[in-house]
């Protein structure tokens, strides 16, 4: 692998519930080839919107716990609507911490992230929240199947989201759904150029590719899809284990 090339796909309309993302991607690509070795990275909000994973705050009734958390944050400079907190709690298997207006949660998928992935940005409505897809790996497989039917090729498909990183400022896109690509590259047991046996080198290929895709689009570009070329070494004919293979089990979490 000598180089990577990432292109934001222009021309996609605002995605709405029921839209066929594979159809929209093929239409936007036009004459641009999307081959078996291409990675199609899709921002999760486009997937969530197409699947109807959007909540109107007008329909939310906050629980007592949500109201208590909102009261605790009031006056801190990081206030949070009790209705939004309720949505976050509903999307969480476990609330790990609540500080400075941020709820650190373990989602029902098993991801540990801020506010259980619930987000109000890039949403048309003033009081609407976008949730994570219910099963991002299944979403990636479905989009890949749709692309195969329309193109005759089976590019890899990735669903991405922005996560914070422990001990580091800023956010970085990571893979939360994946089909047709190796998520990890395990070098443990191999040797480095000096003959030293590698014991911990386990490369997060999918997350690195997600970060690469994110660099090719601005956050306000309205380009939720990025085509990444140069990853043929890691793409697979089979859908594979998905992004779930990246998830660390709770018993391996050294920060708990």
Detail the topology: elements first, then pairings.
Layout: E1 5-8, H1 21-29, E2 39-43, H2 44-50, E3 54-56, H3 64-73, H4 82-90, E4 92-99, E5 102-107, E6 112-114, E7 128-130, H5 136-151, E8 156-165, E9 168-179, E10 185-186, E11 202-203, H6 205-215, E12 225-229
Parallel strand pairs: 2-8
Antiparallel strand pairs: 1-12, 2-12, 3-7, 4-5, 5-6, 8-9, 10-11
Helix pairs in contact: 1-5, 3-4
Broad shape: globular
Number of helices: 6
The domain tally reads 2
SS elements, strand count = 12
| Main structural class | alpha+beta
Stated plainly, the CATH topology of the largest domain is called: 60s Ribosomal Protein L30, Chain: A
Percent of residues in beta strands?
Answer: 15-25%
pLDDT under 50 segments (min length 5)? none
CATH superfamily of the largest domain: CofE-like
* CATH architecture level-2 label of the largest domain: 2-Layer Sandwich
Helix content: 10-25%
Text of the CATH class of the largest domain? Alpha Beta
How far from one another are the termini? 38 Å
Radius of gyration: 19 Å
Order of helices and strands: EHEHEHHEEEEHEEEEHE
* Main pleated-sheet profile: 5 strands, mixed
Summarize the structure.
By secondary structure, the protein is of the alpha+beta class. The protein has helices at residues 21-29, 44-50, 64-73, 82-90, 136-151, 205-215; strands at 5-8, 39-43, 54-56, 92-99, 102-107, 112-114, 128-130, 156-165, 168-179, 185-186, 202-203, 225-229.
